[in-house]
Amino acid sequence: MGDFVTRVLAAAAALFLLPGAPAFAADDDGTEKVFVFKDSRITESSGLAVSPTHDGVYYTHNDSAAAPTFYAVDGRGRTRATFQIRGAEARDWEAMAATKDPATGRGVLWFADIGDNLDGAWPNVSIYKVTEPRTLRDATLPAIRYRFRYADGARNAEGVMINPVTGRLYVVSKEFAGSVYAAPKKLRSDKVNVLRKVGGAPIMATDAAYAPDGSSYVVRTYFSATLFKPSGETIAKVTMPDLKQAESIAYTADGKALLTGSEGPGSPVYRVPLPDRARPTATPSPSRAEEREESGSPVAAKADSGGGLTVTDVLIWLAAAAAAIGVITFLARRTR
């Protein structure tokens, strides 16, 4: 019931928020359905990533109450391989990311067990680092487990992203006043790493991803997506296709479009083109990006007010809550 109320509140708020929000709407022929997951085992696709080394291959995994399993899928939605992660837990897998190790050229996959619907049920959360397999055939893979806790208290989160220029990991919380949290520059597997808030995020974020060249990142919500510069400055809001339960977001390999998916059996994945001002630019040099992080200004440290709640937002949410309560009350009376 709590999750239902949250979705109703979010939907009601969207009715107020969307008309006044500047957004990029793809042309009728711009947004396209890329494929539908054909594997009957993929029932709650919650994370999505493009393979860094296998052309035309996408990775996904199911949501909570599933095994530590992920799937390699081709451009027609057919499963090419199924992988198990040795020794991993899957309390509430919510997101994944894919990067390339600059030293070895090998792909690296990150799986985020960061869901916490009780906002404090777990003393810490885990993110698993897996070296991408060279061959796409069923296998059990080793992983490095990194444990995390939030400096300002436990919370629910559904977004994880890796800055490809600096290698820094970020978690995006799923809250009415969401936040971007930065992991330490160097992760430790022998202790709990601390996630520190570095900026705001859109309301009820369900996923996040970094562009392949590091020039921007995106945060997905149930209704739209917002593009940001690495500094946290908003670039644009991007209209998303109507999905049953929007859960995942990723950039295409060329960084010119977004891929977005939904939970549910046989769920689709859509390609949404980016506005021109958000297309790939010159890649920031690692040295400059690292200097910004060392100086205390990591990604989103200067996130604009669009990431958090303003007084106007609070008033909107109060109005949305009142409308939602009316809807819930009506439905409750009808179903007695």
Question: What can you tell me about this protein's structure?
Answer:
The protein is mainly β and 336 residues long. β20 and β21 (257-262) form a beta hairpin. It is globular and about 40 Å long. The chain is built from three helices and 22 strands.
N-C termini distance? 15 Å
Label the overall shape. Answer: globular
* Biggest sheet strand line-up: 7-8-9-11-15-14-13-12
Topology, number of strands: 22
Structural class: mainly beta
Assess the beta-strand content as a share of residues: 35-45%
Largest sheet: 8 strands, mixed
Low-confidence stretches: 1-8, 11-27, 294-298, 300-317, 327-336
Radius of gyration: 19 Å
Q: Mean pLDDT score, rounded? A: 82
Order of helices and strands: HEEEEEEEEEEEEEEEEEEEEEEHH
The tally of helices reads 3
- Helix amount, in percent? 10-25%
Q: What characteristics describe this protein?
A:
eight-stranded mixed β-sheet; 336 residues; mainly beta; 22 strands; disordered C terminus; five-stranded mixed β-sheet; 3 helices
Short synopsis of the structure:
It is built from 3 helices and 22 strands.
